[in-house]
Amino acid sequence: MILAKQSPLTRKLSAFVALSEAELAVLERLHQRRRIFAAGRDLVHQGQSDQAAYILSSGWVCSYKVQADGTRQVVDFQVPGDFLGLRSVLLRTSDHSFEPIVTIEAAEVLKSDLLVAFAQTPRLATAILWAASRDEAMVVEHLVGIGRRDADARMAHFLLEIGSRLALVAMGNKEGYACPLTQYHLADALGLSAIHVNRILRQLREAGLMTFRKGHVTFDDYEGLVKLAEFDPAYLDQTGPLLK
Amino acid sequence: MILAKQSPLTRKLSAFVALSEAELAVLERLHQRRRIFAAGRDLVHQGQSDQAAYILSSGWVCSYKVQADGTRQVVDFQVPGDFLGLRSVLLRTSDHSFEPIVTIEAAEVLKSDLLVAFAQTPRLATAILWAASRDEAMVVEHLVGIGRRDADARMAHFLLEIGSRLALVAMGNKEGYACPLTQYHLADALGLSAIHVNRILRQLREAGLMTFRKGHVTFDDYEGLVKLAEFDPAYLDQTGPLLK
């Protein structure tokens, strides 16, 4: 039975540590200030100070940096259960912007809320540090992947990673997942042109590996795709049998 | 007056939060198991499980990933005051390796030590989360820089970033800093050939901007170098006047 109070973040952190009733209650209180945000309007601007962090409970968000020449570089996407701007709330000045891709629900978390929660339960502090470490591991994986993987392996790796992240919050499995990203998002994230993205997706479909259509990613041959991408999910630390 | 017990990590975290006597004592206890490690022998191997984290108190370390094809990709360098493998100790499997560049001194920290320390002082947990967030911000900055900056701006940005990090632990300033990196390290880190690195360093020297010679980086024209690199240190969250 899924309890109503089991937010995606709770599910995610539970993959790292078995939270007690008291810890669950503290985590739940962090979700108090829930708000709805419309697609396309930044939650947090790059360079903004004294902003809050947010816990995303539904919808997808794009985080990006604006370059000196005005172009946008996608850093990552956030899915339910992810923090938005956790590092920014601690680093004072946000080093990137967050834009909801669809209408989202997110709970505002102030630095003081975090301090209070950590004082109440140090295990929760460790769990949140785990989540931050996992985010960093993903960025490192992207950094390494950018120069090394061919465009088709990069695409496959990206969509498999998102699938694993969604599986952690019970929103995806080895069959696939609902995905609101456009081909433009994929192009920005992978450093490819939209035309190139289109061609690669067609190749992957024709090879019987996966299909991305009408807001849904379908893994037609999960193991084949893993092989193409050389996808080893160890860096996501989801050692349980999550994708099944 | 600098107290003997002011380790580089203590100095670094003090830039984020004014630590009380009690918090300093807890932080000091994390430094108990100090060990010396020789250059060139990995502290932590990629894929290793149940490893400890380390607090680096002297010397420099290179963190890298080994690719499926056997090549090495440098992720970052660690300087005194940095954690080695903080995210790995939480993520169970290390996603990268650590190799001392010179003889180093580092204190071993187990996951259980962290939990005990966090239970004693939640403000310390927040400070360590701050340090982890700052590390992530650096990786994001590298990710964005890789495709966007010319080789000379990339080199300048890299050496300025290291300078700012060292300034935080009183090991560098706007004049320069001692640097044990070789041109091969620079080449690996910046995705350039050793010959290319050599040429860029000569150009920067001939332009009167900086000199890298005999294990020392000298900023001949700090502001000029900042301008070339478009270096904005906000992501390092060192809002105090550190470089002076």
TrEMBL record, chains A, B:
Keywords carried by this UniProt record: DNA-binding, Transcription, Transcription regulation
For this protein, the record's Pfam families field holds: cNMP_binding, HTH_Crp_2
What name has this protein been given in UniProt? Crp/Fnr family transcriptional regulator
Which species is listed as the source?
A: Roseovarius atlanticus
Q: Name one GO molecular function term.
A: DNA binding
Q: CDD domains in the record, alphabetically?
A: CAP_ED
Stretches assigned to the Cyclic nucleotide-binding domain: 15-90
Q: Which residues form the signal peptide?
A: none
Would you say which domain of life the source belongs to?
A: Bacteria
Among the GO biological process terms of this entry, one is: regulation of DNA-templated transcription
Asked if the record carries the keyword Cytoplasm, the reply is no
| Location of the HTH crp-type domain | 149-223
Q: Does the keyword Aminoacyl-tRNA synthetase apply?
A: no
The record, for InterPro entries, names: cNMP-bd_dom, cNMP-bd_dom_sf, HTH_CRP, RmlC-like_jellyroll, WH-like_DNA-bd_sf, WH_DNA-bd_sf
